[in-house]
Amino acid sequence: MPVAGNVAIVGSAATVFGVHHELGYLDLLEDASRRAIEDAGLQNQDVEAAWLSTAVTDVVALEGESGSPITERLDFAPRPVTRVSAYCASGMEAVRNAAISIAAGEYEVVLAVGAEKMRDVTPRGSLVARTGNMTHPTLTKGRTGPGFFALLASRYLDTFNRTTDDLSAVAVKNHEHATRNPIAQYNEPVTAEQVRSSAMIADPLRVLDCTPTTDGAAAVVLASVEWAKKSGRPYAVLSGVGFSVMDGYYSGLYNPENDFLGFRATREASKVAYAQAGIHTPREQLDLVECHDCFTITEILNYEDLGLCGRGEGWKLLLDGATTIGGDIPVNLSGGLQSCGHPIGATGVRVVKEVADQMIGRAGGRQVAGAKHGVAHTLGGPGILSCVMVISAAE
Amino acid sequence: MSPFQQAEGPDTAAAVVGTPATLLGAGAVLGIDRVPARKGRRAAARPDEDAVTLAAEAAALAIPADADRIGGIIFVTTTPPYLEGAAVQALAELLDLQGNTFALELSASLRDGLAAVRLAASLAPSIGPVLVCASHAGRGDRTMGDGAVALLIGADAGEGAGLARLTPVTSTSIEIRDRWRLPGDDVPRDADRSFAQEIGTVKLVNDLIAGLPEELKAPPVVVGPDARGSATVEKAGGGAADAVTSLSGVIGAAHPLLRLVASLDAPALVVAMSNGLGEAVHVVPAPAGAAAAAQVRGLAANGGAEADRAMADPMPADFNPYSSGPRAWRDRDVDLRLAGLFGPAEGLPAVPGRRHPEGVIIARTADHVYPAGKVTEMAVATMDDGGQYYGQVTVGDDVQIGDRVKLVPRRLHHGGGMIQYHWKVTPCR
Q1: Residue B225 pLDDT > 90, yes or no?
Q2: N or C: which end of chain A has fewer CB within 10 A?
Q3: Mean pLDDT of the region B233-241
Q4: Is residue B291's pLDDT more than 60?
Q5: Which domains does chain B have, with CATH numbers?
Q6: Do the Cβ atoms of B370 and A136 come within 8 Å?
Q7: Is B321 close to A133, i.e. CB distance below 8 A?
Q8: Do the Cβ atoms of A147 and B360 come closer than 8 Å?
Q9: CATH number of A7-122+214-231
Q10: Residue of B342, B347, B380 lying closest to A260 (CB–CB)
Q11: Residue A218 above 60 pLDDT?
Q12: Could you give the residue numbers annotated as active site of A?
């Protein structure tokens, strides 16, 4: 059977996202996993298989190169565990593969967990140094994550005659949303002036245009919808799943079809997910969106790529307040990556958990009343791949 | 012979006439900045330039668009990027001269620019045109200018052909030190100036000229490490005023060639003398030579951005970008000629070093977190002849969306102890 409409999220949990000097990678992973299993009303031995998402293993001494950390901390032997890595979309790709195993009928109950420990080194020493030192010796040498997205920001602002005030508005909105999210790394509001006066990272992006560097883990338990119904516990349904990989890591950057005004991968993945879920007019049919706002510009581009508005109109959707809590299509009610941080392997799983919580009606102060359909979205690599899931409330 | 008697030197008065040749093309570049020098100003290269990148840019100007197969390449520099192992291979790749090509690197003295002309003239009748690329990039050495000159030298086609007829007329070798470097020296050591002038440049050049038959004499253009001494000989011999040195500085082994090209509107005897190594080439310009001369004189006179920089900063200690010998070999087409990123018909040009590809900036940023110890300018450009480029902007330059740019070879880093050359965008000046 297909995943769409047949696989349910029956349990979930996440650690607080932040700087956890007192907790190691395995501690984070274990905490999220055990609590997610408990949330599903299950015992450890009820889970038949697991998928682990960790993207950057060299900062955790190569733990996470396979799924074995789950075996170690959850006493999981001899059950199968699989490590998944797809850049910043790793978490949702772990969930997707776990869901496929349920749909295939191989298992009844599985676990997908994402964990990343990024603050055992300084932010400059983690991904930035990794990018500088370990990427291809010549191709796009000089590129960093912020530097790449800054290129899109410069092009967007120039093409549509906009200013950095639009970017600041994303940060202000998402940090305000995060005041309602107890697991966010930063849950204090920020002002536009604070964003504008923060340190320059890669112009036009400043510190408060960027996701922080974060430790964290999140986990979801998946089962068939049939199993979920029988359990009698709350659940949400994966009603559409799209995952698109559009190009190679470097070739995608030289491809003239990459116009630096959005991401084809998101457009293709959402097309698949929407078709499966019967979403024809996303802005009208969706109740909320959790998207990959690794940088402020990315959220504006995501609006357009996810079909919430036309190309070049994302800034207007933002400034009209449509994506703010109380708006008709609130985006990143969790505070997004801007506020929650971005422990890479964990992010996608957290995003799925966030939308599932909304569908179940347990999102606390950020709950959208009566939410029926939400979108979870992540973007990976230099925009070459994307995962989009439509998650719906149980009927 | 008494030990107190001066030994008889070689017969510096005897001419060693070489094979005449035709100068088919010439190109020159100077470091874009102008900084104070001992006297006047000097051209200074940017930190991401070196002798190879400067030579590649000059060579692209020297090779006519309709050039036939080039039989060989001689790279001449006293600032070699590799002290052992040579860099002429990288230069050849950048210029699409890789494969079964005679390639030679000379790095002994300032004189070698002219010595390479003699070699090229000898080789051209048998292997075809030879490209001589001479360059100097002192990485902040305030005693010299930075720049490059490339000459494409073909078999003799007689007077009036090409840009000029070049005839090597004499060579000398005497053990006398006026400017040299020992291993580890950042800048050269100089002999006592009076010794260099009285025994070095002035005497040796005068002896060399005196030994020539009358038909090979012409107003001298003299290049040596001692600019004052060189000027003295030039003036005494009726040479034309030096229009470039006070603006460019002496650009090492390329300087004799820079002066040669700048003098292509009148017959001249170009002489280079350094550390007792001397070479002279008799130059009879063709009508087309005058334009080349004017171009080079204009290049020096146009100046550049005023700057005052010390030596190029080294990379931070913790910046060790990945590099790999097998990868560099396997991907040399991509690294050095951008081949294979996309098909030549629809993508980036296969041989950018020979085509001066241009484009327009569509996105740019100044990245403050790339760990290279400096703000790194990055840009995306849509190229006129297809393809999209994403990479660094040349150090010291700034681009804005909509700016016209061109691809130029530059030095990216030397991670892992290997120099990585690649392409950057630079404003069309």
Answers
A1: no
A2: C
A3: 90
A4: yes
A5: 21-306 (3.40.47.10), 325-427 (2.40.50)
A6: no
A7: yes
A8: no
A9: 3.40.47.10
A10: B380
A11: yes
A12: 88, 342
Residue B309 has pLDDT above 80, yes or no: no
Q: What percent of chain B has pLDDT over 90?
A: 54
Query: What is d(CA B378, CA A254) in angstroms, rounded to the nearest whole number?
Result: 14
Per-residue pLDDT at B103 exceeds 80:
yes
Q: Side chain identity at B319, as an amino acid letter?
A: F
Site of tokens 């790095």 = B107
Q: Is the peptide bond before A204 cis (omega within 30 degrees of 0)?
A: yes
Check if the beta carbon of residue A50 is closer than 8 Å to that of residue A113.
yes
DSSP letter for each residue of B341-363: SS-TTTSS-S-HHHH--EEEEEE
Q: A54 to chain B, minimum CA–CA distance in Å?
A: 22
- Write down the CATH superfamily of domain A145-210+237-393: Thiolase/Chalcone synthase (3.40.47.10)
Which residue, chain included where needed, has tokens 């009209």? A320
**Which residues 379-398 of B have a C-beta within 8 angstroms of A?**
379-380, 382, 386-392
Share of chain A above pLDDT 90, in %: 91
pLDDT > 70 fraction of chain A, expressed in percent and rounded: 100
Site of tokens 């012409």: B218
Q: Do B335 and A138 touch (CB under 8 A)?
A: yes
pLDDT at position B186: 80
Distance from C-alpha of B76 to C-alpha of B93, rounded to nearest angstrom = 16
CA atoms of A171 and A250, how far apart (whole Å)? 29
Q: Which residues of A touch B387 (CB under 8 A)?
A: 254, 256
CA–CA dist B330, B377 (Å, integer)? 28
Nearest to A132 by CA among B322, B396, B328: B322
Nearest Cα to B225, choosing from B203, B196, B184?
A: B196
Q: How far, CA to CA in Å, does B278 sit from each of A50, B13, B220, B233, B256?
A: 77, 12, 14, 14, 11
pTM for this predicted structure: 0.93
| Per-residue pLDDT tens over the stretch A237-256 | 999 999 999 999 998 898 88
CA distance A60 to chain B (A): 19
Packing angle, helices A145-159 and A164-178, rounded to 10: 120
Reported as a single tens digit per residue, the pLDDT across B116-165 is 999 999 999 999 999 999 999 987 787 889 999 999 999 999 999 999 99
Query: Which pLDDT does position B305 carry in this prediction?
Result: 65
* Domain definitions of chain A by residue range: 7-122+214-231, 145-210+237-393
Helix (H, G, I), strand (E, B) or coil at A102: helix
* CA atoms within a 13 Å half-sphere pointing along the CA-CB vector of A328: 10
Spatial distance between the Cα atoms of B262 and B290, rounded to a whole number of angstroms: 9
- The reported pLDDT for the residue numbered B2 is 42
10 Å CB burial of residue B139 (0-12, 13-18, 19+) is middle
- Angstrom CA distances, A284 to A279, A330, A374, B249, stand at 9, 12, 11, 70
What are the tokens at B241?
């005023």
Q: Flag whether residue B48 sits within 8 Å of chain A, measured between CB atoms.
A: no
CA angle B223, B31, B247 (to 5 degrees): 50
Q: How far is the C-alpha of B170 from the C-alpha of B282, rounded, in Å?
A: 9
Give residue B53's identity as a one-letter amino acid code: T
Residue A134's pLDDT is: 84
- CB atoms inside a 10 Å sphere around CB A165: 14
Q: Which helix (H) or strand (E) holds A285?
A: helix A282-285
ipTM comes to 0.94
- The reply to whether B16 touches chain A by the CB within 8 Å rule is no
In chain B, whose CA is at the least distance from the CA of A156?
A: B363
Given CB atoms, is B219 within the 8 Å cutoff of chain A? no
Contact B390 A146 (CB under 8 A): no
B210 in contact with A, Cβ within 8 Å? no
CA-CA distances (angstroms) from residue B175 to A15, B80, B195?
Answer: 77, 23, 14
Which pLDDT value is given to residue B6? 43
